[in-house]
Amino acid sequence: MKTGAFVNRGLVRILSAIVVINLLFPSVSLCNAALPTEVLQASPLLLEVQQKVQKVLEELDHSLAASARELAQTGLGAPEARSILAEMCPNAHYPFLVDCCTVNSRGRMLLVEPAAYKSCEGADISSQEQIVRLHATKQPVMSRTIAMVEGFCAIDMEQPVFSRSGEFLGSVSMLINSEALFASIIPPAIKGYPVNIWVVETNGRILYDGHEEEIGRNLFEDSLYTPFQDLRALGARIAAEPSGEGSYAYYQKGSGSPIVNKRASWTTVGLHGTQWRLVLAHEVGTNETAKSKAPVASHVLDRIGKLCADTELQKALARGDKAIGLYKFKEFYNENPGLYSVQWIDPKGTNRFGYPPENSIENASIRKHKLSTDRPFLKAIAGKVATTVELPLGEGGIGVFYLHPVYSGKQYLGMVYAISMKQ
User: Within a 10 A sphere around the Cβ of 209, how many other Cβ atoms?
Assistant: First the structure.
């Protein structure tokens, strides 16, 4: 890849964050230290994934635009044009790129890289929707997921190419494996968190889901979803609204598993008029009906202090005994109505486990996620002092965190903490 083909990543990150906030909350001033409640209640995990996906799309778009400018000098079928394509595809930093090609003004593929797809040269793609749109508008386009002449479904990103005199020559194309793109971003972002993020086009086609059997299905057409009319009704809202929240009933972990109630929030990524919805889903826990019974903060801290003084729990946490730890947490949870969860995070910032599982993070490093919303949480762990903080939850909403240090002898084991949902 030539130097300068991709824009500075730090700048893109900053600009993308600004775009995300301005798109979702146009009234927010970045000069204000305090963000409105709706920003705080949005899932930081969902916003993190949104920012990362949008950043990748914009980087690829900038790269393709730079190649279009180079091709304007060389022409679309020249030997030098093949070198320009080869510098984009393949790309180790973006393994979800499939191929890159030049397309003439009649919609015929001229040159394709890498060589594995050379057999596609000469194919007529003039009837594909994104090519029709590009030829009509002479503007950059990005397709939906469609069947490609290469023999698979992918997303096509195109930039128009003009000669030095301004004549429309055709376009340069980049094919993206959407499933691989999302798989490179979503699983690492939500690892250990009790959520699933799925991606759907506005026509109902599911581009990505943590449960692979869902990928490629259409929410509005597939018979799998016929019994779940509240899911389809929510899907209609997701298709129509760029962001929002709602609830639905569906299988807990894919078809055949128990049916549970889930809460969903969604947002949007996309380019050039094509949009994808990112949907974060979280199983509604057994405590949801107890939100109105939120406990008094001082009482919770006192009770957690007594829990942390339990020598059996101390010994269990010191040796990493999850079974006994969960037993103790379950007892505490059941004895204190109104709690969202009870969890343990070790001194290194790894959330080990908690009860109930559907509201708890398991074996995930909070420190490695580097969410800005977690800084007060990590500061409390380092301070080793009982404290209460209000923070957004990864699954959305604002939680009141009651943290208490736990020791085994003189060994600091981290914090045991409980969460109640803020009204």
Answer: 22
In the three-class reduction of DSSP (H, G, I as helix; E, B as strand; rest coil), residue 307 is classed as helix
* Eight-state DSSP code of residue 284: P
CB 303 within 8 A of CB 332: yes
Query: 371 and 279 share a domain?
Result: no
Q: Is-cis flag, bond preceding 187, omega within 30?
A: no
* 2 found inside a domain: no
Query: Is 80 exceeded by the pLDDT of residue 407?
Result: yes
Report pTM.
0.85
Look at residue 79 and give its three-state secondary structure: helix
Neighbours of 303 (CB within 10 A): 18
91 and 223 inside one domain:
no
* 256 vs 81: CA distance, rounded Å: 51
Structural domain boundaries enclosing 214: 194-283
CA distance 236 to 238: 5
What DSSP element (H or E) covers 3? Answer: none
Is the distance from CB of 277 to CB of 267 less than 8 angstroms? Answer: yes
pLDDT of residue 316: 97
Q: How many domains does the chain have?
A: 3
Instruction: Please write the tens of the pLDDT for every residue from 71-106.
Output: 999 999 999 999 999 999 999 999 999 999 999 999
Instruction: Give the three-class secondary structure for 314.
Output: helix
Domain match, 119 and 267 both: no
Q: In this structure, are 43 and 134 located in the same domain? A: yes
State how far Cα 320 lies from the chain centre. Answer: 30
Beta bridge partners, 113, equal 100
SS3 state of residue 145: strand
| List of residues 6+ apart from 132 with CB closer than 8 A | 126
Q: Is the pLDDT of residue 25 over 80?
A: no
In-domain check, residue 185: no
CATH code of the domain in which 101 resides: 3.30.450.20
Cα 59 to Cα 181: distance, rounded to the nearest angstrom:
13
Which helix (H) or strand (E) segment holds residue 397: the answer is none
Counting every residue, how long is the chain? 423
Contact between 209 and 198 (Cβ < 8 Å) = yes
Final residue in a domain of this structure, among 248, 283, 318: 283
How far apart CA 420 and CA 319 sit, in angstroms, is 28
- Residue 26 shares a structural domain with residue 68: yes
* pLDDT beyond 70 at 19: no
